[in-house]
Amino acid sequence: MNPRTGAQQSLVQRLSRTLTAAVLAVWLLSIALVGWYVDSQIQDNFDVELIESAHRQLYPALLELQLTNPQNNLETALQVAAGGDPRVMGELPGSDHSEPLLLQLRNSDGKVLLRTKATPASPFAVPLEEGFYDTEDFRVFSLYDAQYHVWLQLADPVEERREASRRTVVGLAVVLLIMLPVMAWMVATVARRELRYVGQLQRQITARSGSNLQPLSVDGMPLALRVVGEGVNQLLERLGEALNVERSLAANAAHELRTPLAEVRLRLQTAIDQAQQHRGSDTHPAPGAEVEAVPLNEVKAVLHALEVMSHRAERLLQLSRAEGRDVAHFARVNLVQLAEQVAQEFWQQTYAHKRLDCLTPDAHEAVWVWGDLDGLAIVLRNLIENALRHSDGMVEVQVLPAPGAALLVRDSGAGLTAAQIQLIQRRHARMDRQHIGYGLGMSIVKTIADTHGAQLVFASPPPHAAHGLEVGLYFSAASNDAEEEKPCNGVMPFT
User: Fold this and answer.
1) Strand pairing report for 356-359 and 469-474
2) Is residue 51 a contact partner of residue 141, using CB atoms and an 8 Å limit?
3) For labeling, which of 122, 294, 369, 461 is most exposed (least CB within 10 Å)?
4) Which of 39-43, 202-206, 334-338, 400-404 has the highest mean pLDDT?
5) Contact at 8 Å (CB) between 152 and 129?
6) d(CA 438, CA 200)
7) Residue-level pLDDT at 168
8) Average pLDDT, the chain
9) Is this model's pTM higher than 0.85 or not?
10) Rounded CA gap, 471 and 397, in Å?
11) Cα Rg for the chain, rounded, in angstroms?
């Protein structure tokens, strides 16, 4: 047997046993409650019947005493009966009783004047007071007649009442025993039918692999399993995104590093060939003479190629970080402080010292946005680097205040056409030798912008300019209120 099938069957059996036990417990409790209720109703019915019978039998019992001495009236008959033994009358049938009711007629002194044949001659061990009283064997009802000052006491055997209750409980128990197997079968059938969704979900999950991360089908499933399936679908989606990031990183690495590595190999091979040719042309060098070194221009070319490769490797790392970034780590970021900090980094480099200007709101007021500090720093670095590389003039970094907060980077270069702007936002895009580097850098910028829910806007030329390019990162929500977070010593660290 398949272990998975066995586990599923075991779950069905466990669920069936548990549900059956629970239903049985509830059923037993219900029987107990029903038995208690039925017993109370039986007792009430017997009591009502006993009261009605007492009222019906009072005057026939008095008439029975008077018939013993017809020449006397009833009062005289009662006095005569008090001086002798109790008169015995016929049995009293009970409408719902298997045994006859027991009757005693007593005077105000408690003496028994009249009784039925099955009734003991001694008085019932109950007080002469109206109402119900219980003895070990009987439940007695006492009725007083104020006209003749006599007590009629009617007794019902307790055992008969107990027998009626037992018959009711036994009947319910028999029904339970008959229905219990049927109930267990129904529970098992329902459990097996409902748990088929578990098997369906398990088969779908088992069928998934690294090449098949399609979402699970959860239509028609119970709510609990649907929630589990949706959670698995979210996990599959995140796994797919992670795999895409890894594939993209590998593809980008192969694409971006292939050319510089090939150039490094070519340059080195050229330098070696030239050195060997020089060595071969001078087969008998003078004593103490040294072979000509590798040409300087070739070494510089190799160094440049290595710098390009290092730069692109850094871009690939940035892209990987941007695509794998989690919004759960976002916090409040001051755009003014961010722009000043990044500008300080470039001002320390000779080629950008006098070409970069940073424009911030008046009085250096804070402009707060919700985002990732490191990611936004990567965006700003890439935009400034591209602007410095593709322009010979001034480059400006500007922070717009809220509402409509934004980071702007503009240059005074040749600018780009609308088609070129669309192209540079794609990975691996290449314009010409003057625009190499736009593609991957702008892809990083766009990825981080999408993560922040920000809009990336290109303007070529910038407003009120004849040429150049302006790239703006506009945020949907921002605030100039800095009460919740303030930088220490004017510095907010980031990597």
Assistant:
1) unpaired
2) yes
3) 122
4) 334-338
5) no
6) 49
7) 79
8) 76
9) no
10) 10
11) 52
Contacts of 329 (CB under 8 A, 6+ apart): 372
Amino acid making up residue 396 = E
pLDDT tops 80 at residue 400: yes
In the three-class reduction of DSSP (H, G, I as helix; E, B as strand; rest coil), residue 86 is classed as coil
Which listed CATH number (3.90.870.10, 3.30.565.10, 3.40.50.2300, 3.20.20.110) goes with 326-479? Answer: 3.30.565.10
Q: What is the pLDDT of residues 374-386, one digit of tens each?
A: 889 889 998 998 8
Identify the residue whose tokens are 């070319």. 301
Backbone angles phi, psi at 196, to 5 degrees: -65, -25
Distance separating alpha carbons of residues 65 and 94, to the nearest angstrom: 22
Across the range 65-88, mean pLDDT stands at 77
Q: For the CA atoms of 416, 417, 420, 425, what is the dihedral angle to 10 degrees? A: 70
Minimum mean pLDDT range among 286-295, 343-352, 365-374: 286-295
Distances (CA, A) of 236 to 13, 60, 213, 257, 352: 31, 92, 6, 31, 46
DSSP code, position 380: H
Per-residue pLDDT of 143-158, as tens digits, reads 999 888 899 999 888 8
β-pairing, 368-371 vs 356-359, is unpaired
Which H or E element spans position 233?
A: helix 223-281
Q: Could you tell me the two tokens for 459?
A: 């303007």
Sheet with 150-157: list strands edge to edge.
Answer: 87-89, 112-116, 102-107, 150-157, 138-145, 131-134
